[in-house]
Design brief:
The chain is of the alpha+beta class. The protein has one domain. 42% of the residues lie in helices and 14% in strands. It contains 2 helices and 2 strands. Strand 1 and strand 2 form a beta hairpin. Helix 1 runs antiparallel to helix 2. The longest helix has 28 residues.
Length: 110
């Protein structure tokens, strides 16, 4: 269902979604989601077992990434549509380049 929002709100939401994805992308390495077990002998007959178990599966993290990616594409498409179909008024000087004033010639001293 579509909703009407201000362009500024859409731009802010796009920025938020980009930031969320920027934080998620480094975590998308599959080796972070593998259970790793290490055994260390303590004494004769006793071993210390250390297991690193991820809090989320790779599939869960991938679902989160896909969710935010889809929403980013939707909001970005709406912004691009508004960008191509909206005209705004700006002062004509906004599109001129800086022009340096000519300097007066210096007197040559001998």
């Amino acid at each position: 269902m579509a909703q009407v929002v201000k362009l500024a709100d859409a731009l802010l939401r796009r920025k938020e979604l980009n930031q969320k994805l920027d934080r998620i992308r480094p975590l998308m390495k599959e080796d972070l989601f593998q259970t790793q077990v290490k055994r260390k002998p303590i004494t004769e007959g006793l071993e210390d077992v250390i297991a690193e178990v991820p809090l989320m599966t790779w599939q869960q993290m991938n679902s989160v990434h896909d969710y935010y990616s889809k929403h980013l594409r939707l909001i970005d498409g709406a912004i691009q549509n508004a960008n191509w179909n909206t005209n705004i008024e700006v002062d004509e000087d906004a599109f001129t380049d800086f022009v340096e004033e000519p300097r007066p010639e210096r007197l040559k001293v001998r």
